[in-house]
Specification:
The chain has about 220 residues and is of the alpha/beta class. Helices cover about 35% and strands about 20% of the residues. The chain has eight helices and eight strands; from the N terminus they run E-H-E-H-E-H-E-H-E-E-H-E-H-E-H-H. An eight-stranded parallel sheet has the order 1-8-7-6-5-4-3-2. Bound molecules: ribulose-5-phosphate (5RP) and fe (ii) ion. Pathway: Carbohydrate degradation.
């Protein structure tokens, strides 16, 4: 499977957001990871549709929208209209996960399901055929810059084994605490879409993207 790097703009300098996204794009980022937080499912509030529309002008790279939002089905059409290419919803937030995933695909987007660190993989049992990507949170969602949760490794490994056993090439995305130390470990466990916030935007963006991409070859 192809390994892909998805810099999380939550860690960017919002004063120069477009420029930093362009820098990450030109250095070789594959996706742009966009964390939408509602202050309900997670304590923090980040940004919404107007910001996504604006930054759409900065890059043609795939917009990977991670919705940390209660009842996210309320906003699917809006984010599709703003330029999202992929929408990932938390299983913990959806009363009708199967329907929500279908709606995302009907909008012509890639559909993702996110699981918190404490949420079991069994939440995926009956929706894998409607899921393009599983996002395994490797920190508790809500903030950037947190430490990687070790038990995630076994969860990634188990999920990859289950997908392989079913002949599925579903992407496994990991999000939270990914850096030069944890990256080789999550890749080895079977993750292939790598979100990195502080490890990309904390410091020299171009150098960080290039080094992380090199480690993913
Ligand atoms: O979804 C998220 C937080 O809920 C972010 O994508 C994640 O925290 C990335 O930040 P870092 O790489 O600094 O941990
Ligand atoms: Fe995220």
């Amino acid at each position: 499977m192809k390994n892909l790097l998805a810099p999380s703009i939550l860690a960017a300098d919002f004063c120069v957001l477009g420029e930093q996204i362009r820098e990450a794009d030109e250095a070789g980022a594959d996706y742009i990871h966009i964390d939408v937080m509602d202050g309900m499912f997670v304590p923090s509030i980040s940004f919404g549709m107007p910001v996504v529309s604006s930054i759409r002008r900065a890059t043609g790279k795939l917009f990977d929208v991670h919705m940390m939002v209660q009842d996210p089905e309320r906003y699917l059409k809006d984010f599709a209209a703003c330029g999202a290419d992929s929408i990932t919803v938390h299983a913990e937030c959806c009363r009708h996960l199967d329907r929500t995933l279908q709606e995302i695909r009907e909008l012509g987007l890639r559909a993702g399901v996110a699981l918190n660190p404490a949420t079991p993989l069994s939440y995926l049992d009956y929706v894998l055929d409607k899921t393009d990507m599983v996002l395994l949170m490797t920190v508790n969602p809500g903030f950037g810059g947190q430490a990687f949760i070790e038990s995630s490794l076994e969860k990634i490994r188990t999920l990859r084994q289950r997908l392989d056993a079913q002949g599925l090439e579903t992407d496994i995305e990991v999000d939270g605490g990914i850096n030069r130390k944890t990256l080789p470990r999550v890749l080895e466990a079977g993750a292939n879409v790598i979100v990195a916030g502080s490890a990309v935007f904390g410091g020299d963006i171009c150098k960080n993207v290039k080094e992380l991409k090199e480690m993913m070859k």
